[in-house]
Amino acid sequence: MDVSALPVTVASVFYALAGVSGGIWWLALRDAPREAFGTPEMETRRRLKMRRESASFAMLEPLVMPQAEALELDPGTSSPLFGRINKALIILGKEHWHATEWLVLRRKEAVLMGLMAGLVLGFGGFGSLGGLIAGVLIWLKFPEMALRTEEKKAALHRQRVVTRLPFALDLMALMQEAGVGTFQQCIRTVRDEMPDTPLGTELALMDARISQGTSQSETMRELAKRMDDNDIENLVLAVNTAEEKGTRLKDTMRNLAEQMRLRKVQWMEKSAEQARVHITWPAMCVVVGCMILMVGLVVLNAVMPPPPISAGQDASGGMLGGLVTES
Q: b/e map of 62-91 (b: 16 or more CB within 10 Å)?
């Protein structure tokens, strides 16, 4: 038996077994029960929403939920990893997902993606061993990559909310000055003015919570917890304080909008100063490189002898000068 072909044989057998196991697995999951008898209605609605958002969860739910429930009982669920997952899910408005469910689902997806990538690369010219290595790397790295993607989405969502917030506060203050209506009516108007935007989505969620009977102050605190931003926290504190003391909201909103714009301008000025400092060293390297190039050319011209003058040439006119002299 050729020892050099042993890794290829092992990888081929592994992929064959993985393909057969995957087929049996899918057939078993297709008809598996999704919920136990007597599941509360709220839990049923939560899972239905999760199935609509994720096709992989709809397929892998019988495997995900038992492992997620077992993982919740593990003391390690308070680790920073689950804190990162919860924070990203809350900002993106996915509170119906538990961190354990999200992580278990991503691990299952990593297994499937690793198998698919290994099969494609293994039979696509990279060899069985190369496909096996690629599949293992994807299986190990995919959950962390998925979490970083969610964190980037959450940061972008929060940035877009904070960017549009001063304009929304100006509009709400203008409505308060005109005596249009209550704070909830102002929220609805701004929501309608900013549809399909992160801020519009957050305002729609606030309006829905207030309509369900949640107090305005509690709804504002939920917004602050969800966004985890200093500007949002200042807004919530100012609005709730104004409501408790009976002061006019329009003045509070105007001041908050001006403070947010001022902080944004200060941040831009600080970023410009930092950019100037950071660009100093690269600029010096470029200048020094240009000086070395110029000095090197001068030194080469001084050290290296001039090229010899060939027959029929002179120092003043070259070939053309020689021809003119002969004529």
A: ebbbebbeebeeeeeeeeeebebbbbbbbb
pTM higher than the cut 0.70: no
Q: Which residues contact 180 (CB under 8 A, 6 or more apart)?
A: 186, 189
Which helix (H) or strand (E) segment holds residue 71: the answer is helix 55-72
Domain range list for the chain = 3-154, 157-266
Is pLDDT at 149 greater than 90 in this prediction? Answer: yes
pLDDT in tens, 183-217: 788 888 888 888 888 888 888 888 888 888 888 88
> What CATH topology corresponds to 157-266?
Receptor-associated Protein (1.20.81)
273-308 residues labelled b (16+ CB within 10 A) or e (exposed): eeeeeeeeeeeeeeeeeeeeeeeeeeeeeeeeeeee
Sign of the torsion angle spanned by Cα atoms 232, 233, 239, 243: positive
Instruction: Specify burial of residue 45 (Cβ count, 10 A radius: 0-12, 13-18, 19+).
Output: exposed
Classified as helix, coil or strand, 196 is coil
Residue 232: name the closest of 314, 141, 159, 152 by CA: 159
